[in-house]
Design brief:
By secondary structure, this protein is of the alpha+beta class. The two termini are about 25 Å apart.
C-alpha cells in the first residue's frame, strides 16, 4: 500500500497570534485531519491520564517557529480542536448529557451542530451579544474589584495551566471529600498577576484570598476576562426536557467530542 499524501488546512487562531511575540505570525497554523492512530492513543490506558488536547494538537498541528503547544492560549487550543473535529467529521454532530439544576432529569443533546458556536476573533469590531465595541485584546487585564476596592491584574490561561488546574481541583476533592467543583478558584489564582501592584508569591495563599472574596469581586474578575478574551463562545442556553427550566451551560467537552454521533458520520 502506497503512502497517501496528507491533506492540510491553514486556519487562523482567534488571537491572531497577538500574545505570542511574533512567533505565530497573524495567528496562522496548519492542521491535518485526525487519523485512527490519534483515537487509539486517546483511548489507550497508557494515555488515559494525559492531556487529550495535547495529544491531538501535537499530532495534528504544525505550529510555526517550533512554538510549544503548551504555551498556546487555552482559547486558541480549543479553536484548533474544534477546527480538527469539524474538518475530520464535517457533517457529524456531537452528543452530550447535562443535568438539570431544578430537577433530577439528565438531558441528552443529540447531534449538536458545532458550527453554530460563535467565535470572537482578535480585531472584530463589535460584540454581537452587546452591540458594543470589543475591548483591546492585551495582557494584563486590569480589574477594579467593587467590594474590596483592590486593583487586580489578570492574565489568560495557557495550555500549561489546564492540567495543573485539573490536578489541583482533584487533589482538593480527595482531601476534603466534598463534591463541589473548585476549579474556578484554582484558575483565578493562576490568572492573578498582581494585587494592588504586588505580585503574589504563594499560590495557596492566593486561593485562600479568593475564597474570602465577596462574590461580586470574584465575578468582576471573571467578567473582565470574558469581556476581552478571544475564542469560541461555549455558553449554551438550554431548556430542561422534563421541567422546561432554562440553564446557561458551558459546552461539556468529553472524550466523546472526538467520537461523532453515529447517525451523522
Amino acid at each position: 500500500m502506497g503512502t497517501q499524501p496528507v491533506p492540510t488546512l491553514e486556519i487562523t487562531l482567534p488571537s491572531r497570534g497577538r500574545l505570542y511575540e511574533g512567533k505565530i505570525p497573524d495567528g496562522k497554523v496548519t492542521i491535518r485531519k485526525m487519523k485512527t492512530g490519534e483515537l487509539i492513543a486517546l483511548e489507550s490506558e497508557a494515555s488515559a491520564d494525559q492531556d487529550r488536547a495535547a495529544v491531538i494538537i501535537d499530532n495534528c498541528t504544525i505550529l510555526p517557529n517550533k512554538f510549544p503547544q503548551r504555551d498556546l492560549l487555552m482559547s486558541d487550543r480549543f479553536a484548533i480542536l474544534l477546527a480538527l473535529r469539524r474538518w475530520t467529521f464535517p457533517t457529524a454532530g456531537y452528543n452530550f448529557n447535562w443535568k438539570c439544576q431544578h430537577c433530577p432529569h439528565i438531558n441528552m443533546v443529540k447531534n449538536f451542530d458545532l458550527g453554530k458556536l460563535d467565535c470572537h476573533m482578535e480585531g472584530d469590531a463589535v460584540n454581537p451579544a452587546t452591540n458594543e465595541p470589543w475591548p483591546t485584546f492585551v495582557e494584563p487585564v486590569v480589574c477594579m474589584l467593587p467590594e474590596c476596592g483592590k486593583k487586580v491584574e489578570l492574565r489568560f490561561l495557557r495550555g500549561t495551566d489546564e492540567k495543573v488546574v485539573a490536578q489541583a481541583a482533584k487533589r482538593m476533592k480527595n482531601v476534603t471529600g466534598k463534591v463541589e467543583d473548585t476549579s474556578l478558584m484554582h484558575r483565578l489564582a493562576r490568572q492573578i498577576v498582581s494585587i494592588d501592584d504586588v505580585k503574589p508569591t504563594d499560590i495557596v495563599q492566593t486561593e485562600h484570598w479568593i475564597v474570602d472574596l465577596d462574590m461580586p469581586d470574584t465575578y468582576a474578575m471573571v467578567d473582565a476576562l470574558d469581556a476581552v478574551e478571544t475564542g469560541v463562545n461555549l455558553k449554551l442556553n438550554l431548556d430542561c426536557q422534563a421541567c422546561q427550566m432554562p440553564r446557561v451551560l458551558g459546552l461539556p467537552i468529553t472524550a466523546d467530542f472526538f467520537r461523532p454521533a453515529a447517525s451523522k458520520r
